[in-house]
Design goal:
The structure holds two protein chains of two kinds. Chain A has a domain of about 210 residues. Chain A has eleven helices and two strands. Chain B has one domain: ABC transporter involved in vitamin B12 uptake, BtuC (Orthogonal Bundle). Chain B is about 70% helix and about 5% strand. The longest helix of chain B is centred in the last third of the chain and has 27 residues. The chains are: A mainly alpha, B mainly alpha. At the A-B interface, helix 4, helix 9 and helix 11 of A face helix 5, helix 10 and helix 12 of B. Chain A: One of its GO terms (molecular function) is transmembrane transporter activity. Chain A: It is found in: Cell membrane. Chain A: Belongs to the binding-protein-dependent transport system permease family. LivHM subfamily.
């Protein structure tokens, strides 16, 4: 096993991790500020991907497609928040789970209705296609490298937004004491819609960016949604920093586990059996990781102490 | 219209007896299969209702037990139909086509797994509990997909339905009788459990855990025991479901199925004796009739669900009896 392969796999893991972060950041913000579990977050990811694929197909511009993904997901998020989610803030978790489960059904079947069951394709723009040579002579796809860059930039931007702006102060205050900031004259329902739309836009962006390396199809959001849940449970629900650390941990565990566990098993098993049990264990790896984290810290790495 | 809940329950039971009998007379075997499906889903949901309805634990991973039951049936019957021994490391055993034996294995395996999942996930509560149970479900789902020996992603087909002494299980009505009898037994158990000291303590632990602790009970133990019973019942339903389809696949572990089990309970009414039964019948009917009208029936199911959550507290049972909660 060469060091080039190892570095490549670490980069793949990072790329997967930062995309998971885009999903998990929205989920964790929405939970932190509004106390809401949003199962329909994966649908917003799908909305972003479909909007991007449709606009890219019509105009041929990847940049316009990204703008469309952000706008469509944010708009869908805002509409859903005002029509449904708003009534659920004080409801028990069970009602939230069910109502957002119902939203998944509506979004998925609605999208199938409009776009059909066949996957759409979103092409990587020419300027970003092809490999790039990194120091040390490693060839790595430029697009994936760009994704890592975008993900890190969003992470920094989100940090600045929350820590350094007036809106960020309101968001943090909303997490701590919503009655108080309402009493101080902040329009709380506008703030909630804004936070929800922001989370939705991040999910839509992730959907569009990942849609270019995978296919854009109905149901693409749910596997990512569940991984994003694992991420925020590991990181601590409500903590954006936790979501970042959790996302990188999950991304790296999943990618590296898939490559190295079968190799590891080959040391003491025959090749075929090692391949089989290695990849079986690798597919469960992140859930094992989550279990271990929760045994150690039941509220996640950066969660508030219960 | 305000119905007495007892009256409503009796109507459901009589309906579940009369409809298949009518189907036999009218020679409509497919109707029997539909009702059997509803009864088995109801059985799984009654299991979930013990922890969800009485104990207030929202398990979003109950498909784990449904799948374990399914795979217990699949693996045992697979070894019986291929005449191969099932190698368990220390010893090996023959497969079996006997339903009671399969049920026993399904329930014991589900119970053992429920102990482990319960010990881990009951350390948490609220959202964390929902998500950790969801993650366990996914863990089993991916394990089943990569388990190439038993079909992996394609699942396992069983050629002939398993045997029950004295009955011809291939006749739809006879298989239905088995499922319906089991449902009645489990419903009886549920009613007894809800009224027993254990059920009352569990209900109290849902409302105020601290108070239960103060009177000297251990809420964790109560919840764990409930979780194990619940898992075993859902496992039994899984074995029956696999037998109905003569097929098991990783979709029995899918998180959509966990979601659907919760949906059944909510449609019918949380914590109600017959809530899951009503929910399952409505669900299967919607699936069948809306599915005939349009391929996109999930949109309507979603809308119905949304309305129930936003406007109809207490599910259909609550709507029909005029009482919102099961615990009032």
């Amino acid at each position: 096993m060469s060091s080039i392969l190892i570095i490549e796999q670490i980069l793949n893991g990072l790329q997967f991790g930062v995309m998971l972060f885009l999903m998990a950041a929205g989920l964790t913000l929405i939970f932190g500020v509004m106390g809401l579990i949003n199962l329909a977050h994966g649908s917003l990811y799908m909305v972003g991907a479909f909007a991007a694929a449709a606009v890219a197909g019509a105009t041929g511009s990847f940049l316009l497609a990204l703008v469309a993904a952000l706008a469509a997901a944010a708009l869908a998020g805002a509409i859903v928040e005002m029509a449904v989610i708003r009534r659920l803030y004080n409801a028990p978790h069970l009602d939230q789970v069910l109502a957002t489960f119902a939203l998944i059904l509506i979004f998925s079947e609605g999208t199938r209705w409009v776009f059909g069951s066949f996957p759409l394709f979103l092409d990587i723009p020419d300027a970003l296609s092809g490999p790039v040579t990194l120091p040390g002579g490693i060839e790595y796809p430029l697009y994936r490298l760009t994704l890592i860059g975008i993900g890190l930039a969003v992470a920094v931007g989100l940090w600045a937004l929350i820590e350094r702006t007036r809106l960020g102060i309101q968001i943090r205050a909303g997490e701590n004491d919503r009655e108080m900031i309402a009493a101080l004259g902040v329009d709380i329902s506008k703030l909630y819609t804004l936070v929800f739309a922001l989370g939705a836009a991040l999910a839509g962006l992730a959907g569009a960016l990942v849609g270019a390396i995978q296919s854009v199809q109905v149901g693409m959001g749910e596997p990512v949604l569940i991984l994003a849940f694992v991420v925020i449970v590991i990181g601590g629900i409500g903590s954006v920093r936790g979501a970042f650390v959790g996302a990188l941990l999950v991304g790296l565990t999943d990618t590296l586990g898939g490559v190295f566990l079968p190799e590891l098993f080959k040391l003491f098993m025959e090749t075929g059996a090692a391949q089989k049990s290695g990849s079986a264990l690798a597919s469960m790896g992140i859930y094992v990781l989550m279990g271990l984290v929760l045994i150690w810290r039941p509220t996640g790495l950066f969660g508030a102490r219960a | 219209m305000r119905l007495n809940e007892r009256y409503l329950n009796a109507v459901m039971i009589v309906g579940l007896l009369a409809l298949p009998l009518w189907a036999v007379v009218a020679d409509q075997p497919f109707t029997i299969t539909l009702v059997t499906r509803a009864v088995i889903l109801a059985l799984a949901a009654v299991g979930l209702n013990i922890i969800l309805g009485i104990g207030g634990m929202v398990s979003f991973g109950h498909a784990v037990f449904f799948g374990i039951g399914g795979y217990a049936m699949g693996i045992l019957a697979y070894h019986a139909q291929t005449y191969t021994a099932l190698d368990l490391g220390l010893f090996s055993m023959d497969g079996t086509k006997s339903m009671p034996m399969i049920w026993l294995v399904a329930m014991i395996l589900s119970a053992i797994v429920a102990v482990f999942i319960g010990l881990l996930s009951l350390r948490t509560s609220g959202v964390y509990f929902i998500m950790i149970t969801l993650a366990f479900g996914q863990m089993f789902f991916y394990f089943a997909i990569s388990w190439a020996q038993y079909g992996g992603e394609d699942g396992l087909s069983i050629y002939v339905r398993n045997d029950f002494p004295g009955l011809n299980t291939l006749a739809p009505i006879q298989f239905y009788t088995i499922c319906f009898t089991l449902l009645c037994v489990v419903l009886f158990l549920f009613a007894r459990l809800q009224a027993s000291p254990f059920g009352l303590a569990l209900n109290a632990a849902r409302q105020t855990s601290v108070r239960v602790e103060t009177v000297g009970l251990n809420p964790m133990q109560l919840k764990l025991l409930a979780f194990v019973i619940s898992g075993a019942i859902t496992g039994l339903a899984g074995a029956l479901f696999a037998d109905l389809n003569r097929f098991v696949s990783p979709t029995m572990f899918s998180w959509q199925l966990s979601g659907e089990l919760i949906v059944l309970i909510i449609i019918g009414g949380v914590g109600r004796l017959m809530g899951p039964v009503i929910g399952a019948c409505v669900f299967v009917a919607l699936e069948h009739f809306l599915g005939e009208l349009t391929d996109f029936w999930h949109v309507y199911l979603g809308l119905v669900l949304l309305c129930i959550v936003l406007f109809g507290r207490g599910g259909l049972t609550g709507l029909l009896t005029g009482k919102e909660g099961a615990h009032v």
